[in-house]
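Reviewer comment 2.1 asked that we show a complete input and output for one of the modelled complexes. We chose the flavin mononucleotide case, as it is the one discussed in the main text.
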Amino acid sequence: MAVTASLNIAEARQRARARLPRGLFEYIDRGAEDETGIATSKTALDSLVFKPRVLVDVSKRDATTRLFGVDQPMPLVVAPTAVAGLVWYDGEVELAKAAAAVGIPFCVSTQSITSVERIAGESGARLWFQLYVWRSRERTRELVRRAERAGAEALVLTVDTAVTPNREYNVRNGFGIPIKPSVRAGLDCLAHPRWFAGVFAKYLRNGGVPTYAHYPDEFRTALGRVAVGDEIGLAQDVGWGDVRSLRDAWKGKLILKGVLRADDAEKAAELGVDGIVVSNHGARNLDHAIHPVRCLTDIAERVGDRVTVLADSGVRRGSHVAGYLGLGAQGVLLGRAVLYGLATDGAAGAQAVLEMIRRELLTTMGFLGAPTVADIVGTVERPR
Ligand SMILES: Cc1cc2nc3c(=O)[nH]c(=O)nc-3n(C[C@H](O)[C@H](O)[C@H](O)COP(=O)(O)O)c2cc1C
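Response of the prediction step:
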């Protein structure tokens, strides 16, 4: 059912909030511990300062960007988000279709409900694959080979999640993976019947409670248990040696996601990594982590000549994208913003969000006197 289009991401968020069970909405929307990172993210992006150029012909504005040798109509990538498949039925396929419709890559999460093979087969999207390293490096290598066989162009190694984040609201609201039946979760579902009927009940009818699609079968069937098995617990000892091994094993583009320091970016460059995402994981992991707006330029100045620098965290407006691009990023990932769109209208909702951000970006570029994305450089004041 088509709904009146959201005017902005804040409206899309309100709709997602109404649609989703509280536990799931909070899992998507909130941060970690005292959530200072969420507040900092808003302040950092609200504090962006533009220095517009005037008297520039902006009658033809173009947001086309070349990322890793491929032209795409907008400088965006759909970020990897665990369990997007719970937000909408087949949510990962829907997100990938939205990305394909606007010509940008979709990054599949290790913790996706739908497998990379199915997403590749059903969406026609250009895929990147996000990797969490499991304790068993052999199992991890097998997962990487799966991503390669499915045609993923880039492997995105997430490096900012060495330990499990502390998200207390999810303890209180009962949301977690594995999904556990509880009175609270049951009431939450009943209070959100459109989601329950359109997503969860549909999964139950079509094969059962959703699980992590990339986990080996013998563990997937056991996802009802808390201990998913030592071998596929997330490794806490991931180091530069793993980056080296992945660089040797992976022929496509290799990207490190979650870099916040220029010295780490330098090491990545030395190891032949193709790209980095300057990200604080949307303020979901380490509370008080520095916001990308504050460290992006240092990092881009240090490695931008050798490595493609991307950024994410907190983007809710096209002007935020312009801010990141002006501070040195070549592309920007969107996490929650597209999930809000997905929650209300599947692929169409996610696509509407991507197009909205592009429209807003083009408007900002018009005011900045920046007919192309490259022209944005020099119009954003470096945060002090
Ligand atoms: C619900 C949710 C799940 C996420 N899951 C993953 C994940 O599995 N792997 C990963 O590298 N990042 C994950 N992220 C982080 C995003 O890739 C991205 O860095 C972040 O969402 C950017 O901030 P934004 O949501 O404010 O745009 C997740 C984010 C959200 C909101």
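Residues 9-43+63-360 form a domain with the TIM Barrel fold (CATH 3.20.20.70). We note this here for comparison with the apo prediction described in Section 3.2.
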